[in-house]
Write a structure and sequence with these properties.
By secondary structure, this protein is α/β, with parallel strands linked by helices. The chain has 3 domains: about 120 residues, PAS domain (Beta-Lactamase, 2-Layer Sandwich); about 150 residues, Alpha-Beta Plaits; about 260 residues, EAL domain (TIM Barrel, Alpha-Beta Barrel). It is about 50% helix and about 20% strand. This is EAL domain-containing protein.
């Protein structure tokens, strides 16, 4: 019994302890749910109501505490745009007797919209009724975060795409000419660098072309007309070459064509002739028809020597322009040898400048009437250590092509000023000394500052400009620059007047101190009445503009007499002395004096 009593008492104690543990477990679960703000609900399918805990009321902000709420409370709280889907999700769970999983928005009484996540499990209760027990929690922060992340991703992708497109545009702009849309020199260089590795190439040709009359079109009709010519040329060249070819604009009016895998030289010539034929056609610009053309240099090979071909075609182009423009010239080995010789000469010339080998030689200028000395012209000579004294005709053209002309001008002027000072210290006063100035030197924006640093006395230095530098193509900026030089006390002379095609308007604009009649007009002046009339007309025009006239190339006394009679102010030529260096000052002056005395005596007798 006792045993029986003891046996019956033990289960009661276990039951009490289990109930206590269960209650503790429930409290901990409630605390956990409360801490995580998860609401719990239960719904019997056969009934209309839903059992909500306190957290559910807080999620929906109902302000109530009742356990049983109508299903409509839940349904009506769902956002209208989400309601149908949320109810459909629940109906599918009922039909499947399976888990319920949904996410939707609710509209709180305050109008605020929150995002909720709802999950439930299906079960059958003790009475056999099918039911769901579930939980809901606020996922607004997660939804907004995900939305922001998605937005940021879209923005990042858009920026990446925009950057990629921008880089592509930048790359395109960097590689193409803005005016014609053609590849530029940068892209051409890339293509030429790639060609040696392309083993599919069997033949390769490079055409280097320069538009003829382009500068005249620009000057006469304006830059808009020039742009129209360039665009038309780009279209015409592109239409003339095969699809596997490339045309690039590499300079103002320069284009380069790269052709690959043409059949033979005959086909290459046909393409070249077609390009030239198309470029000869007139271009309509407004109401005007513009006429251009092209000089073309061509080089080709059966291998992939792209770099060599580019240099060779450039040399061939130079030859085409030198021979009269609007023509095609193919590269030859003789041209190559000429190119090598010019390069060697250019290197030697640079070294000669560094070593002071470029010196002035002086030729006297006389008054045409009194035969008194009125000045010297300083002529550049190269005292080459191996070849002796070289005349300017040998090196000045190369100097101009290599950008050394301005350096030669500066070296000559420096030496002239030093020689003049030496003569003054020895009692020899030279009224003025004329030095040549190149177009590149004249265009130097720093020229005025350089001249000021030399502290040149007014009236002692004369700058001789070749006629073709300015008289037809002068602009206001150049004329203003020359005006500033005049203000410094440096006179301006026009050299070789009559050798070009100068306009009177250009002469009036420039207002030089004097001009020098070209020796070609002087040569026949004694024997040709027509030449005398030409020279006389030049003198009359000069006098009308208050410009002095010097005749150069005087080789005989007869020339001197005739030109003095025609009204020339000054004379210069071999008849009065050959050019000589400053080191031979004594011979220069004594020879000059003796010649003049003899000529005066002859005239007196």
């Amino acid at each position: 019994m006792q045993a029986s009593k003891a046996g019956t008492a033990l289960p009661e104690k276990k039951a009490t302890r289990s109930e206590h543990e269960f209650q503790n477990l429930l409290r901990r679960l409630e605390l956990a749910l409360d801490a995580s703000r998860i609401g719990v609900w239960e719904h019997s399918i056969e009934q209309d109501g839903i059992l909500w805990d306190a957290q559910m009321h807080r999620l929906y902000e109902t302000g109530e505490t009742c356990r049983l709420v109508p299903a409509s409370l839940w349904s009506n709280a769902i956002h209208p745009d989400d309601r149908e889907r949320a109810e459909r999700d629940f109906e599918q769970a009922i039909a499947m007797r399976g888990a319920y999983n949904s996410q939707f928005r609710i509209v709180l009484p305050s109008g605020e919209i929150r995002h909720l996540r709802s999950r439930a499990h299906f079960y059958v209760d003790a009475e056999g009724e099918p039911s769901f027990i579930g939980a809901e929690w606020d996922v607004t922060a997660d939804v907004l975060l995900n939305a922001e992340l998605a937005r940021q991703k879209v923005v990042a992708e858009a920026r990446a795409l925009a950057l990629e497109e921008s880089n592509a545009r930048i790359e395109h702009v960097a590689d193409h000419d803005y005016l014609t849309g053609l590849p530029n020199r940068r892209l051409l260089d890339k293509r030429l660098a790639e060609l040696p590795a392309d083993k599919s190439i069997t033949t390769l040709g490079v055409l280097h072309l320069d538009l003829d009359q382009f500068k005249q079109i620009n000057d006469s009709h304006g830059h808009a007309a020039g742009d129209a010519v360039l665009r038309a040329a780009a279209l015409r060249i592109t239409a003339a070459i095969p699809a596997n070819g490339m045309v690039a604009r590499v300079g103002g009016d320069e284009f380069v064509i790269v052709l690959v895998n043409f059949t033979d030289l005959t086909e290459l010539k046909q393409i070249t002739e077609d390009v030239q034929r198309r470029l000869r056609k007139k271009i309509r610009f407004g109401q005007e028809m513009l006429q251009s053309g092209a000089s073309i240099g061509v080089s080709w090979s059966g291998d992939r020597r792209a770099r060599n071909l580019f240099a060779e075609s450039d040399l061939a182009l130079y030859q085409a322009k030198k021979l009269g423009r609007n023509r095609v010239e193919f590269f030859t080995r003789q041209l190559q040898e000429d190119l090598r010789s010019k390069r060697r000469l250019a290197e030697e010339l640079k070294l000669g400048l560094e070593r002071g080998q470029i010196l002035p030689y002086y030729q006297v200028q006389l008054d045409a009437r009194t035969r008194e000395v009125i000045g010297f012209e300083a002529l550049a000579r190269w005292k080459h250590p191996e070849k002796g004294v070289l005349a300017p005709g040998i090196f000045l053209k190369v100097a101009d092509e290599q950008g050394l002309a301005a350096e030669i001008d500066a070296a000559i002027l420096k030496s002239v000023l030093e020689d003049r000072l030496f003569w003054l210290l020895h009692g020899l006063a030279v009224p003025r000394i004329a030095v040549n100035i190149s177009a590149s030197r004249l265009a130097d924006p720093a020229l005025l500052d350089k001249l000021r640093k030399l502290d040149i006395p007014p009236g002692v230095i004369v700058f001789e400009l070749v006629e073709t530098i300015f008289l037809d193509d002068s602009d206001e900026k150049l004329l203003a620059h020359i005006g500033d030089i005049k203000q410094m006390g440096i006179d301006i002379e026009i050299d070789d007047f009559g050798s070009g095609h100068a306009s009177l308007i250009g002469l009036v604009k420039l207002r030089p101190k004097r001009l020098k009649i070209d020796r070609q007009l002087v040569t026949e002046v004694v024997s040709s009445a027509e030449q005398r009339r030409v020279v006389g007309s030049i003198v009359e025009i000069a006098k009308a503009l208050d410009v002095e006239v010097i005749a150069e190339g005087i080789e005989t006394e007869a020339h001197a007499v005739v030109l003095a009679q025609l009204g020339c102010d000054g004379l210069q030529g071999y008849a009065f002395g050959y050019p000589a260096p400053a080191a031979e000052t004594d011979r220069l002056f004594s020879s000059m004096t003796s010649r003049i005395e003899k000529q005066k005596a002859a005239m007196g007798s």
